[in-house]
Structure formats: C-alpha cells, structure tokens
What we know:
Blueprint: H1 4-18, H2 25-52, H3 64-76, H4 78-86, H5 89-103, H6 120-130, H7 135-154, H8 165-186
Helix pairs in contact: 1-2, 2-3, 2-8, 3-7, 4-7, 5-8, 6-7
Amino acid sequence: MIKQEINDFCNNWLQKANNIDSSNLQGAFDKFFTLYVVYNRLYVETTYRLANNGQINLGNTFPDRKASINYVVQYLKSNHIDKEFKNDKTVVKAIDELKEIIKKNKFNIKLHLVTAEPQPEKDAELLKKMDSNKTDIRICAVLEYLYSIRCNIFHAQKGYNDRQIKVLKPTIIILEKIIGILFAKLNN
Length: 188
C-alpha cells in the first residue's frame, strides 16, 4: 500500500490535471507538466520499492531515466502494461500518432543533450523499438518517448509553438494511462 502522504500528493496533482483544458498550447503544456509531476513521484516510489526489495541497486545518484522507463516496466511487467494499453483504444491511437510523428518527420524527439540538434538516427531507432515484436522493447520505447518529451520540455530544448500540441496530446493520453496502472499497482 502506498503511504497516505504520497497518495494525497498524487491525487491533488491529478485533480489539478483534470481541471486543465488541454485543447490549446498553454493547456497542453500545463497538463503534461502536471501529470509528469505525478508520474515522477510514482516512479520514484517504484524505484525505492525495487531497491528495498533487493531487486535493484541504487548508486549515489537517483537514476531518473532508468526509473521512469526500466524500473516502471520491471515493477509492472511489460505484458501487463501492454495488455492495459491494448485494451484502451485511445491509448492505441495515441501510440500510433507518436509513431507517425517520427515516420513523417513532423517533430524531432531525440535531441542532442548540449546542442539540442535533432538526432534523426535516434528517432529512427526509437521508432524501430516501438514497432518491435518484443513486448519489453516496445513498452520501454513508449516510456522512453514520454521521457524524451519530458526532457525536451523541462530542459527548454523545444520552442513553444502550436505544432507541439500534436505531440503533447497523445503523450498526455499515454501518461494518464501509465499513471493509472502504476498507481493501482502501488496501492495493492
């Protein structure tokens, strides 16, 4: 069972997210930021649970990227996430939209950490993983996509223009879904 303070924290932020109209650019950014705060708190809790159970070994710094992708998949199991995603038509559509963004070069997902230059070969690699027949690889790729968008936005590597709604809307749908799955498991 999740601690009451974490439960209250997450529910408070989820309520904030539910009150945001994401039909415009400002709202889409706000909703993504707000939801990511919840996801961040939940994957931190997940990471600590895995560490406390001896399933992972944490070093001197918190492995944020690994926690948001690998440890979430390790904790929830990729087959469970995959089933939950496939049972939700809006999530299936959202994932397809994210893949189309890369296929049609509508948006650069992977950016160089220092220069913010697009890295099309890394986008192509991400797309290949999203199309993988292996569930672990495919689910990790979807979470990697979310994390990449988070990094681009949080570290101000992306501009602020209306075309970003096309990437934010499907990521919001997937983020809401993975939060729901993770929250439910942590509360059991």
